[in-house]
Every structure is written in C-alpha cells, then in structure tokens.
Design a protein that fits this description.
Blueprint lengths: L10 H9 L17 E4 L5 E3 L6 H4 L3 E5 L8 H16 L2 E5 L5 E2 L2 E2 L13 E4 L5 H9 L4 E4 L9 H17 L2 E3 L19 E6 L6 H4 L8 E6 L8 H9 L4 E8 L5 H14 L3 E5 L4 H11 L6 H10 L2 E4 L2 H13 L7 E6 L2 H13 L9 H7 L13 E2 L9 H11 L3 E8 L6 H13 L5 E6 L7 H7 L5 E4 L2 H19 L14 H7 L7 E2 L1 H10 L7 E4 L2 H11 L3 E6 L12 E5 L2 H17 L6 E6 L5 E10 L3 E8 L3 H5 L2 E4 L5 H10 L4 H4 L9 H18 L3 E11 L6 E3 L2 E5 L1
Parallel strand pairs: 3-4, 3-7, 7-8, 8-9, 10-11, 10-12, 12-13, 13-14, 15-16, 15-17, 17-18, 18-19
Antiparallel strand pairs: 1-2, 5-6, 20-30, 21-24, 22-23, 22-24, 25-26, 25-28, 26-27, 28-29, 28-30
C-alpha cells in the first residue's frame, strides 16, 4: 500500500480564487502567497510563479541598519562595519538606526526607521527579535528586510511557533524578508574584473557556499549570493526565479537542505528551464541521517528523496552530491557554449590514463565514438603506428613536445563526431606538460567545441596550471577524473534537455474532464474504497478492467460466471480490504459451476472468521498472460500528488523497482519513467517472449496522472496492482485496485 500525506485549503486562498471568478475544486492545496498568481490548473494549483523584483534588494539606493553599533567587541559592530563597506561598493546610502545612539561610526543615527530622512529600500535587522520591527517597516513602506536572528524553527517546536508568528506578520506587512537565521553572504564583495557569464549562488547554510565563492580566485565570475536561512518569507524558489531572468547569470548553483514548498520550487525551475539557464543543486537528505540533520538545522521538510530526485530531473535541475561537484559543474555549465556534437574524445600521453578515463566516462553514459579510419590515418601522420588512436587517443608522449602536439589536437577537434575533447594530465612533467597545456588553450580559443583538462597534480602551484589553464576562459579545468565526468555529463544532458523543453505547466488541464464528473460521484470521503468501487473509479477514467460482476449469493456467482467466461477468478470485495491473498480471499482458475459455488461459500466463511466487512464477492475474468506492472498515486508532503510506475505483483515489494513523477507531465516523461526501471527489458520481451503493449501502459500512466490532477487531495491514495500489460496492440488491464479518499 502506498503511504500518503496531504495539504489543506486555506480560507485566504479560496477567497482569492473566488474573487477571480472561479469556484475552486475541493482539492485545492495551501500554497505560499508567491505562487498565487498566473492562472490555476484543474485542481486549483498555480501554473506560474510571481517573481519578486529583487533588484532593490541586491542594489538598494538606501539601507537602514536597525541595531547598528560601533562599540568594539560587540557582534553588531563588526556587522555594521561590513555593511558600511558594502554600501559604499554598491553606491547605497547607509543609515544607522538605534534608539539610544546619536551617531554610529560618525554617521547620524536615527531612533527609528520612521525618523529617517528618506525612504529606504532595505532594512537590515540586527535585533534579537525582529517581530516588533516588522510593523514599523510596513508603515515606512520598506520593501525588503534581512533578519539575522536565530532561535527560530531550527531550534525545535517552540522556535517553529515563533517563526510562524514572524511569517504571518511579514505576510500582513507586505515587507519581503530574508531569514531569519541568515548571515552576511548577500553582502559579500564580488570581483568586478572577471568577464563572462556568472554563477548566482543560493545556499541555506552560508558556510556551504564558501567553495563556490572561492571560484573567483580561479577566474570564474560570481554575481549574487542569496543565503536564505530559515525562509520565513523569501525562499529558494524566489531567488531561483529571479536569477533565471538576469542577463549576466550563466548558471545557478544551490545548496538546499529543505524546500519550503515543492510546487514553488518546480515553478521556479520551470522558469529557469524556459530561459535555458542551467540549475545545479546539492540537496541533502538522501539518507535518514542526512534528513534528520537537515531538519534540525533549518526546521524544514526534506521530502521523500526519490520524489525530490525525480522532480528535479523532470525540470532539468542537475543534482550533484558534493560541493566540489557543485562548483565544477556550475562553472562548466555557466561558461561552455552549446555542444556541436555529443561525442567525447579522450586524448592522453599514456594508454593507461586514456583507458582509465574511458572506462569512467563510458560507465557514466558518455559516448566515446570510434574515430573514422581516415581520421585515424591522419593522426598516425604524427603518432606512431603501433599506438591506438581510435578513441581514446594515445600519442605516446613525445609528440606533445613539438609541432605535432597542436596538429593532433586540431585534427581531433575537426572530427564532426567529436563535441568534447578531454585531456587528462595526471601530473606535471615540464617542459612537455607546459607545451601541452599551451596547445590545448590555443586550440580552445579557435574552436567552438568544449576542451576540458584534468590537472592531476596534488600541488596545484605549477605555472602550467595556475597561469596557462586557469588563465583561459575557454578551457574547463578540473582536478579529478570524477568531477570532470560528472560535469561533462551534466553539460550534455542539460543542452539535450533544454533543446526540447516544453513546459508541462503550459499544457496542464485547466478545466475538469467528463471523467472527473463521473468519478466525483464515486468518491467516499474518509473511506478506503472496495476493489469493486475502485475499479469503477478507473472505468470512469477509461482504464480497462476485467469483465466482472459483484454478487451476494452462491447462485448469483454461478449465474455471473457464464457471461464473464470460464475460467474465472473469485475475490472478496470490501471497503477496508487491502491484502486479500494473504487472508485466502482469492480463488483462481475456477472452471465449473460447482467450483464457483464452493468458492463462494469458502470465501464468505473466511470473511466471517476474519471479521471482514464485505460488499460482495467479485466474479472476474481470468487474465494470465502479460507483464505485471503497478501504477499508483500518493501524496508527497512537499510536491503534492505524485504518480509512480513500476514492476507489479509481488515484485513491487521485493525489488522496489519504481519511477516517480510530479504532475503535470506529458507522454515523453511517462516513457522516460519506464526507461528508468531496472526491469524494463521485460516490456520488450525476454527469453523469446513477445513485446507487450507499451503504448497502452503509457496511456494508463497518463490517465492516472489526470486522476491525480483532477481529484487532487480528495484521492489520498491509488494503487493499481497488478496492471497486466498484454501483447502489443492488446492493451493493459487493471486486475486489482485500491483507492483511499480524503
């Protein structure tokens, strides 16, 4: 049985929807204010995200520092000093605010924000309790504020209550708040002497962004840093959507401990995907220990990790595990041009190095095309004939030290099947490594193809690395094989995804279907439906079920068996009956009236003994050929309704071979779900078996998705298992179903 959680409808959201002239469906869920614009889908969920204009946050004209101090030794003093320096860099006028001071660092100090000589764009709150200040900011019409104070949801239940009060006050005020439990990372000094597309950074833990901030020392530009903290108001999704529309941003890097609202995150990721801006994220919580640590730090839900992972892939978010992968992948995606081809050529001075890297690249799913015979002959002009140049390409070492080195690189890049050239340099060996690095940089500047170098030296102070390679904006330089493979795979995957991206929100249904009207009358609030009732629900959405009749007597069972057709299956049907087989409440392969009569009596006897509440006995058509699958709906605490498909029958509990998606999604995603299954070969036929009707299976997945969208929270849970997929062109039949209504 699939587990579930669901949201609730807020009076405020219902009022907003009704005011727009639409009566909301009963399954509308509560969502943050930021998502309540831009149209609703069939279940009342927003289709677009309202993006806050954060220009005045990052580049304010005037700033108020509430609680400013210049008393040495106090924490507020260091923060005030740093904010003064930041304001001078961005051209903002800074106003200290403190009721007990006349001046701070020689600047006139106002007793309150209301007493300031001009309106302010940003208020920085250096106070232990920001709640009393929020109303004052609202009266002064301050658009943005930052709260550094801790002691909120990250501390437990009492802190969560305090944060809820703060969030409610902020929503009433109209002020947009960053924090609480945030830091000064938004006000860091960014280098302005670096060129090219920049990385914008979002972190819920400020310290976790330090490695990416340090990328500036390697010549990689950063434009923004949003340390979102506890996200009482402004959240990761707000900054993600804002950065996606900034012209200087080439990629967005995120460190996420928990998502405030899954739907908002997906709407923001959709905005980035529409704009073609890659998003790379570390999302902690893959393990139970990681999830617990994340909750204790930020007080947020981490969500079922399989759902998080699938949702991110669905909207093109590249998920990585380490901060080193985050920085290398984001840097490559920000700076590299779109690929001309997907083939990867590995070029090295050592056959062992090339073979090692080729293994890692192939295992990761990269394509290493064999170079043509003509291209290999050309390379053998400069490389000894006994060396392999098919791909990986081994030059034996000596050619890199003279004129041959550049000719080899140019020849490889000229091959139309090659879109990426990767050269692992496992260690410095001057002067040959110096010449090789220079040749690679010069070649990269004359090609529109991606050139990657792995500098394997643990020292990292060599001139070939620090000056030649890092001095190039065209060569992507890595320190490890694995990070290079991860980044190149993400680069190719992103551009393949972006080239064919169509927003599922544009195609999401806006009005209920005729199926919904039929299905709504079959729902039983607060109940688990019997198998017979659950199958009626499937019928309403055009999902095929076996011929069957529900009977309440042995004679009725015999009469039903004729039109159903022997052999038949007989099953107990009741509103709270989930595991019939374990209780002996299923009889299979009945071929005569006497067997049907005896089976009826045995099933009803077992039901009485087990105190099972029956609505009757099902006499069903027997279908015993095909591949057993399962398709289901459950509710994720972050993302709402989700659709799962996997191998069915007992295999679903043994193998856990499933794929999941968050509606809305289209046919391509449904087929991709099947492609993710380890047992997908069963659908194509194994050991002489015929292929099954994959098109029919995809259609069932899409119909179940429509149920999830339209019935929303009213359908807490749906489990079709087994769904027997028959031979090609013969369809799919739902043999059993479980449905739970809210």
């Amino acid at each position: 049985m699939l587990g579930s959680t669901h949201g609730t409808l807020t009076t405020d959201f219902r009022a907003r929807v009704v005011a727009c002239g639409e009566e909301p469906h009963a399954s509308v869920v509560s969502l943050p204010t930021a998502t309540r614009q831009g149209g609703l889908d069939v279940s009342g969920r927003p289709l677009h995200l309202a993006v806050p204009d954060l220009d005045r946050f990052f580049r304010p004209r005037s700033v108020a520092v509430v609680g400013a101090s210049d008393t040495e030794g106090r924490p507020n003093t260091g923060i005030t000093r740093q904010l003064i320096a930041w304001a001078e860099r961005v051209g903002a006028r800074l106003h200290p605010v403190h009721p007990a001071r006349d001046a701070v660092f020689g600047r006139p100090c106002a007793p309150s924000v209301a007493a300031l000589p001009e309106p302010v764009d940003l208020a920085v709150l250096l106070v232990a309790d920001p709640l009393p200040v929020i109303e004052e900011l609202a009266e002064a019409k301050v658009p943005f504020a930052v709260a550094f104070a801790s002691g909120f949801a990250e501390t437990g239940e009492a802190g969560a209550v305090a944060q809820a009060r703060l969030a409610a006050a902020v929503e009433r005020s109209g002020v947009r708040l960053l924090g609480p439990n945030t830091n000064l990372n938004a006000f860091e000094e960014f280098r302005d002497d670096l060129e090219g597309p920049a990385i914008a950074l979002i972190t819920q833990s400020g310290h976790q962004g330090r490695p990416l901030y340090a990328l500036q020392e390697l010549g990689i530009r950063l434009s923004h840093w949003a340390p979102t903290g506890n996200e009482a108001d402004l959240e990761t999704a707000d900054f993600l959507a804002y950065f996606a529309q900034r012209p200087e941003v080439g990629a967005i890097a995120c460190y996420v401990e928990g998502l405030k609202d899954g739907r908002s995150f997906l709407l923001a990721a959709d905005r980035a995907a529409r704009a073609g801006v890659p998003v790379v994220a570390v999302k902690v919580g893959r393990t139970e220990a990681g999830a617990e640590a994340a909750a204790s730090h930020t007080g947020k839900l981490t969500g079922a990790d399989q759902v998080v992972d699938a949702a991110m892939r669905q909207f093109g978010v590249v998920r990585v595990d380490g901060l080193d992968e985050l920085q290398d992948t984001a840097a490559l995606l920000a700076r590299a041009r779109p690929p001309r081809a997907e083939g990867v050529a590995v070029y090295s001075i050592s056959g062992g190095t090339g073979a090692h890297f080729a293994d890692l690249a192939t295992a990761a799913g990269l394509t290493l095309p064999a170079l043509s015979a003509a291209k290999q002959d050309e390379l053998h002009t400069w490389i000894p004939g006994y060396l392999n140049v098919a791909n990986p390409i081994d030059n034996g070492g000596h050619p890199v030290g003279d004129h041959r080195g550049r000719k080899i690189i140019d020849a490889i890049l000229a091959d139309p099947s090659v879109g990426v050239l990767i050269c692992p340099i496992t260690g410095p060996f001057p002067p040959m490594s110096d010449r090789l690095a220079q040749d690679l940089v010069h070649a990269a500047e004359t090609t529109d193809k991606l050139v990657c170098v792995i500098w394997g030296s643990p020292v990292g102070t060599e001139d070939a690395y620090r000056t030649t390679l890092l001095g190039s904006s065209r060569v992507a330089t890595f320190r490890t094989f694995s990070n290079c493979v991860t980044a190149v795979k993400a680069y190719l995957d992103h551009h393949r995804f972006a080239s064919g991206y169509r927003s599922p929100f544009d195609e999401a249904p806006r009005t209920p279907s005729p199926s919904f009207r039929k299905a709504r009358g079959l729902m039983r609030p607060g109940q688990q439906l019997s198998e017979h009732a659950a199958k009626q629900l499937l019928r309403a959405y055009g999902i095929r079920v076996p011929r069957e009749q529900l009977v309440t007597s042995a004679a009725g069972a015999v009469r039903a068996a004729g039109p159903v057709g022997y052999p038949v299956v007989m099953k107990a049907s009741g509103p709270h009956l989930a595991h019939k087989t374990e209780l002996g409440l299923v009889k299979v392969g009945l071929t005569s009236a006497s067997q049907v009569r005896d089976a009826y009596r045995e099933l009803t006897d077992i039901a009485r003994f087990e105190s099972v509440d029956l609505d009757g006995i099902l006499v069903c058509q027997m279908i015993d050929r095909g591949v057993e699958m399962m398709v289901g709906v459950t509710h994720d605490a972050l993302f709402g309704p989700t659709v799962t498909v996997g191998l069915g029958g007992v295999l679903v509990e043994v193998l856990h071979d499933t794929a999941v998606r968050v509606p809305p999604f289209g046919e391509k995603e449904a087929r991709d779900m099947l492609g993710e299954l380890r047992g997908r070969a069963l659908l194509a036929g194994v050991r002489g078996g015929a292929p099954v009707d994959v098109d029919a299976l995809v259609e069932v997945v899409l119909r179940v998705q429509r149920m999830a969208l339209e019935l929303g929270d009213d359908l807490t849970e749906l489990d079709i298992n087994p769904l027997v997929v028959l031979g090609r062109g013969q369809g799919a039949v739902a043999l059993d179903a479980l449905a739970v209504c809210r």
